[in-house]
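Database export, one record per block. Field names are fixed; values are copied verbatim from the stored entry.
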Amino acid sequence: MLRNSVFIASMALTAFVVIWGVIDTQGLADFATTFVNFVFQSRGWFVMLTVSTLLLSCAYLAFSPYGAIRLGNDRDVPEFSTFSWLTMMFAAGMGVGLLFYGVAEPVEHYLVLAEHMKPGVAASSALFVTLFNWGLHAWAIYGLVGLVIAYFGFRRGLPQMLSTPFKAVFGDRGWPVTLGWLVDVLAIYAIAIGLAGSVAMGVFQVQSGFEQLFDLQKTGMALSLAIFAVLCVAYFVPLLRELGQGMALLSNAAICITIGLLLYILLTGPTGFLMSTVTNTLGVYLSNLIPHGLRTFSFWDEGVQSWYTSWTLNYMACWLPRPFRCSGSAFWGPWAFIRPTKARITRHR
């Protein structure tokens, strides 16, 4: 009955938002905008502190004795090769957004920063901010959520629900049950709403690309629905097959195409300049990784604060619930950062 109540409550919340959006689209948009702006202005510091803490926690776990704990039986071996595991993480964890904003984002950053810095410094800073928005802070969020679920699920053999850690640590009676119920409801709700947003974003990105590539004007809803149908088929077909033949195969193909495009640009373009830029940007990123994670631009003008809120703060706030939906691949859930093992029988350590 408890599971049914979780499903009913989460679906009721989702249906409420859907009905609101259909009946009063502008009203929902205005409410969401007002709420997000309020949260960013009053709790932006908390978001940055949270993601920075998650990054430091992941680093500690990785290099401490806890990093040697296998997320499964002590004799389990990886189910996928390292290459396939990495490709599935990037395909399911970031997907279309990484390629779509790969060039547009640093250009946007440069246009803002060039008003306050010399052009060379602005260009370097623009690339750094782009790496920061997509870098280790985002993967730390994926990693810690995945580690918690994988430890209790694969090693201790408990249900793979977000409420499991609360019940395992504090007991399965009283307030842990209530809190766990609320966590599960909000998680399913976040998956549903977040998945819808991810798919919609992908549709509009692909549609925009078609319009630019073929010089189309006012394609409207017809093209949107056609792209949506194609994406649904692309999502659905891999789910009908075993994971290694479905998601792994598509992810490997996507990354191979990406690597091919990267090599083409590197070899046919200004190779020396590109490699120098990569090296310089990597150095700037590593040297400013922690300090920038605690910057909130409190004393800058409204334009810079708006830029920071629209990009970095928005990214970090989006990454936090993203492990539960992983860019539309809901079946990956919070396990996107965990390398699966062949055996699922686990024991307590």
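Remark 1: The chain has twelve helices and no strands.
Remark 2: The radius of gyration is 22 Å.
End of record.
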